[in-house]
Amino acid sequence: MADYEGEASSGPTPAPRRADKPLPAICDPNHLLHRVVVLVFMCFLGFGSYFCFDNPASLQTQVIKDLDQNTAGFMQLYAWYSWPNVVLCFFGGFLLDRVFGIRLGTIIFSLFVCVGQVIFATGALVNRFWLCEVGRFVFGIGGESLAVAQNTYAVNWFKGKELNLVFGLQLSMARLGSTVNMNIMGWVYSKVADLVGSPGHFTLGISLMIAGVTCLFSLFCALVLGFLDKRAERILHKEEGKTGEVIKLTDVKDFPFPLWLIFIICVGYYVAIFPFIGLGQVFFIEKFNFSPAEARAVNSIVYIISAPASPVLGFLVDKTGRNVIWVLIAVVTTLAAHMMLAFTFWNPWIAMSVLGASYSLLACALWPMVAFVVPEHQLGTAYGFMQSIQNLGLALISMVAGTILDTRGYLLLEVFFCTCVCIALMAVVSLYFVDYLRGGDLNRSASSRASLLKEAEESKRRQSQVTEVDSAKLTPMSAFGLRNRYLSRLGAQLPHHCSTHLSSLAHRSVLK
């Protein structure tokens, strides 16, 4: 009524309502500049986790001396990180999807990382090693699940756009965190020792507390990402991101034999990489007479090479295919690198550089093969199981490696790592022949795989057209359609654009 009266009055006509001003580019969730801002926080989300994961490796000598531990006790710090992830690989995606949601889940897992690092540092401050182990366990609860959340954010924001580049950048930033840790924590410890007056467990605890600042920074990134994602949901009316990990443990019994071989390769390979890096600093000091700074630098070369090499090698594998051959090359070169470290006194920079390149190559070639072996609805279970047994293997081998080093020395430890890689090598050779007998799907070239995909899409398109025609035949006819059908059965010639099966006029080209 008020609008009507105002319209009838002789007063001035009110100005038309102006449309909302367009958002600046940096504030518009649809704009590339805004997504770049999101990507920056996304990359730094896991920086603190990766930085603090290898704190024990960068301070191996100090941890063993200041906390009065042997190598077996030292490696427990890595084992306790892996134990919770034997289970969380199955349930981390479920918690993010069904319980917390991606935004709250990311913040919660970031809090676990922060609290775990604080407990770890507190254990060093008060010289209670069992408390350090508790801290690493809590840290492990958040670490791997935070990586799942990071990948979910990437898919939610960049799917169909720059996703491959984003994954490469996230991996590079993760490796940057590990590299910075390897090269800076020894210097931090020495500076804290100068301030405190002497080295010891208190100095170690303060150093680890300082390292925990990176975890607080990652928590800040999680909070900002949650705010930006919530804002984008409100503006774009999109749903909250999902991990896409559908876990059904009953699917395990249906896994094909090639997938089990892939699992063996994964465990046999990675247990010869991460435990070695965890123990590498003292190895280079004792065998090659390196200074602590030089030992930390050569020990970090695997991560330094992996950061730029992973996107490049991933592009190479995508363009060539032949995944099994690339995995075979990666395993053989890794075995050669370990043998050089074990049986020669060649400059270890050579072997570690080879190890870094082969480590990146295997990651690019091995993990995508799971998608070639199992159907899409089993991918979540397959990857969860693969990560679970990988963490189980890392936990067990970390303890075994520490015991071997305490009782037998570095030579036998390197022989043990070579044996693990040999197991992976036998699994790769077996996978090659099994795949060959099954048609060679895993080792196809990229062009062959692309042509097969094109044929499958064409077949699917034809099937959908046939289904469309069949459904049209089942549709009740109109009076006009019945008339056409009756005339055709009498022998009358219908126009070329008419169909006797559809309820109205139809061009025959639609039915071809």
From TrEMBL:
<feature type="transmembrane region" description="Helical">
    <location>
        <begin position="257"/>
        <end position="277"/>
    </location>
</feature>
<dbReference type="InterPro" id="IPR036259">
    <property type="entry name" value="MFS_trans_sf"/>
</dbReference>
<keyword id="KW-0472">Membrane</keyword>
<dbReference type="InterPro" id="IPR052187">
    <property type="entry name" value="MFSD1"/>
</dbReference>
<dbReference type="GO" id="GO:0005765">
    <property type="term" value="C:lysosomal membrane"/>
</dbReference>
<comment type="similarity">
    <text>Belongs to the major facilitator superfamily.</text>
</comment>
<feature type="transmembrane region" description="Helical">
    <location>
        <begin position="202"/>
        <end position="228"/>
    </location>
</feature>
<comment type="function">
    <text>Lysosomal dipeptide uniporter that selectively exports lysine, arginine or histidine-containing dipeptides with a net positive charge from the lysosome lumen into the cytosol. Could play a role in a specific type of protein O-glycosylation indirectly regulating macrophages migration and tissue invasion. Also essential for liver homeostasis.</text>
</comment>
<dbReference type="InterPro" id="IPR011701">
    <property type="entry name" value="MFS"/>
</dbReference>
<dbReference type="GO" id="GO:0022857">
    <property type="term" value="F:transmembrane transporter activity"/>
</dbReference>
<feature type="transmembrane region" description="Helical">
    <location>
        <begin position="349"/>
        <end position="373"/>
    </location>
</feature>
<comment type="subunit">
    <text>Homodimer. Interacts with lysosomal protein GLMP (via lumenal domain); the interaction starts while both proteins are still in the endoplasmic reticulum and is required for stabilization of MFSD1 in lysosomes but has no direct effect on its targeting to lysosomes or transporter activity.</text>
</comment>
<feature type="transmembrane region" description="Helical">
    <location>
        <begin position="411"/>
        <end position="434"/>
    </location>
</feature>
<feature type="transmembrane region" description="Helical">
    <location>
        <begin position="385"/>
        <end position="405"/>
    </location>
</feature>
<dbReference type="Pfam" id="PF07690">
    <property type="entry name" value="MFS_1"/>
</dbReference>
<feature type="transmembrane region" description="Helical">
    <location>
        <begin position="324"/>
        <end position="343"/>
    </location>
</feature>
<keyword id="KW-0812">Transmembrane</keyword>
<keyword id="KW-1133">Transmembrane helix</keyword>
<dbReference type="InterPro" id="IPR020846">
    <property type="entry name" value="MFS_dom"/>
</dbReference>
<feature type="transmembrane region" description="Helical">
    <location>
        <begin position="74"/>
        <end position="96"/>
    </location>
</feature>
<keyword id="KW-0813">Transport</keyword>
<feature type="transmembrane region" description="Helical">
    <location>
        <begin position="165"/>
        <end position="190"/>
    </location>
</feature>
<feature type="transmembrane region" description="Helical">
    <location>
        <begin position="297"/>
        <end position="317"/>
    </location>
</feature>
<keyword id="KW-0458">Lysosome</keyword>
<feature type="transmembrane region" description="Helical">
    <location>
        <begin position="102"/>
        <end position="126"/>
    </location>
</feature>
<feature type="domain" description="Major facilitator superfamily (MFS) profile">
    <location>
        <begin position="32"/>
        <end position="438"/>
    </location>
</feature>
<feature type="transmembrane region" description="Helical">
    <location>
        <begin position="32"/>
        <end position="53"/>
    </location>
</feature>
<protein>
    <recommendedName>
        <fullName>Lysosomal dipeptide transporter MFSD1</fullName>
    </recommendedName>
</protein>
